[in-house]
Amino acid sequence: MPDEKPSNESWKHEPPYKIQPAGEFGHVYWRGRCQCGRVEYWLNMEKPLDAKFCHCRGCQVLHGAPFQWAAIFQKSAMTFRTSFDSLNFYNSAEKLRQHKPPCKVSCAHCHSPIMDEGRNTVLLFPEAIDFGHGAGQGKGHEREVRERRGLFAPSCHIFYSQRVIDIDDGKPKWSGMNDESERI
Ligand SMILES: [Zn+2]
Ligand SMILES: [Zn+2]
Fold first, then answer.
1. Residue 174 DSSP label
2. If you ran DSSP here, which 8-state letter would residue 169 be given?
3. What residues have their beta carbon closer than 5 A to ion ligand 1?
4. 34 alpha carbon to ligand 1 midpoint, in Å?
5. What are the residue ranges of helices labelled H in the chain?
6. Which ligand number lies closest to the CA of residue 163?
7. Within a domain: residue 177?
8. Which residues surround ligand 2, an ion (CB under 5 A)?
9. How far is the CA of 138 from the centre of ligand 2 (A)?
10. What is the pLDDT of residues 40-77, one digit of tens each?
């Protein structure tokens, strides 16, 4: 009875974990890859729904970074090219190592952070995306990379009250979640 799968395993057969043939997925605008290369994903949308910098303490500790850059996509816009076996899952609210959204997803081998998975969307970390770095040289090439990366530019900063560094970019700064907290 191949169709009778436990319902708590159904996520393995849905986007973004369901491995889709290239022709079915549509145009691939971007490819993302972890540091060791065992995890790769594709995106069929040119731009995220939104992107943010998060300065919360949780992101600082989990990412070992002053803040986190997240780009939001519908799950259907993403497909992994590698099995879910190559991924680690971590639910930070319950401190559980299991696939229980919202959870963090990373490479099981090199531990590069890949994304935060929500119910309908993913908040992926665009550092993994190949915007053309290193493919050419010179000022023109640098500008092209910057323009491509600019499609993922954050619209605002959240949890800015917990920041470790001031960022003078003229973008909205929220003390907590955007639209639900004080503007700083
Ligand atoms: Zn890896
Ligand atoms: Zn955060």
1. B
2. S
3. 34, 36, 38, 107, 109-110
4. 4
5. 22-25, 57-63, 138-150
6. 2
7. no
8. 54, 56, 59
9. 35
10. 999 999 999 999 999 999 999 999 999 999 999 999 99
CA of 109 to the centre of ligand 1 (A): 5
Residue 28 is part of which domain span? 7-162
Answer whether residue 142 is part of any domain.
yes
Instruction: Tell me which H or E stretch contains 117.
Output: strand 113-117
**Domain-embedded: residue 66:** yes
Other C-beta atoms lying within 10 Å of the C-beta of residue 131: 17
Tokens standing for residue 43: 């995106």
**Distance separating the N- and C-terminal Cα atoms of the chain:** 57
| CATH number of the domain enclosing 103 | 2.170.150.70
Number of domains in the chain: 1
Using alpha carbons, list the distances in angstroms from residue 7 to 12, 65, 151: 10, 36, 37
> How far is ligand 1, taken at its centre, from the CA of residue 126, in Å?
15
Distance in Å, CA 177 to ligand 2 centroid:
9
How close is the Cα of 111 to the center of ligand 1, in Å?
6
Tens digit of each residue's pLDDT (9 = 90 or more) over 89-144: 999 999 999 999 999 999 999 999 999 999 999 999 999 999 987 656 788 888 99
Instruction: Answer whether residue 110 is part of any domain.
Output: yes
